[in-house]
Amino acid sequence: MNDRLCEKTVVITGASGGLGEQIAYECAKNRANLVLLSRQYDKLLLLKEKIEREYHVRCLVKAVDISKPESVEPLFKEIEKTCGAIDVLVNNAGYGVFAEAEEAVLVDIQGMFAVNVVGLIACTQAVIPGMKKRKSGHIINIASQAGKMATPKSSIYAASKHAVLGFTNSLRMEMSRWNVYVTAVNPGPIATDFFKTADKSGNYVKNLGRFILSPEKVAAKICRSMMTKQREINVPRWMNTASIFYQLFPRMVEKIGRRAFLKK
């Protein structure tokens, strides 16, 4: 049980399914009040009903497309007016489309950066003033191991997640002056609907087999880190070790791993 979350307000983007949904459940178990954001309002309503019925916490849901940053600031002002201070922001919304660089479609390129990077930054900017004023808060950005080690067919997605990590690392140093925590979450592949968009062939998930992560376990790790100084969450450990090894010996990893990488 994370007692630090009791009666805190946690805002989660991309909360209608997958990892975002599981983070919502974990926070509710720990008696946090929730604000769940997504484009899929019908799914949010079902999630709200389940959470309020099973965990007896407050749960507000709002439909928003964070790829349209002009809609973000007014929404967060409305949330603060309704729910009070935002204690934790989980920037979970994001998606990927796997394709070789030559074949990447412009609309997918723009879409990934609009959601994964610009939308994330817009949501973050919306909570910074309140957190600085209170000298308290936690911003958690869901990045990816792809932001540490890019592989074939994920050049655009990896670029967006490299941007998230760069933003997060800079933000962490800026916000430390106000006692606001900033955490980057770098998961490997998670068993969610992400791959229905990212890899329509289904080959990537099939090749991963038992190495694919459980969203419930990743969500539990994220929830345990809330309102702590944890800098990063890297799962699975072996993949993060590979990322570190890549930073030290990039040419060797690219040569040895090329065949495995191309299985995506």
UniProtKB/TrEMBL annotation:
PROSITE patterns: ADH_SHORT. Keywords: Oxidoreductase. Signal peptide: none annotated. Pfam families: adh_short. Coiled coil: none annotated. InterPro entries: NAD(P)-bd_dom_sf, Sc_DH/Rdtase_CS, SDR_fam. PANTHER family: DEHYDROGENASE/REDUCTASE SDR FAMILY MEMBER 7B, DEHYDROGENASE_REDUCTASE SDR FAMILY MEMBER 7B. This is Short-subunit dehydrogenase. It comes from Bacillus chungangensis.
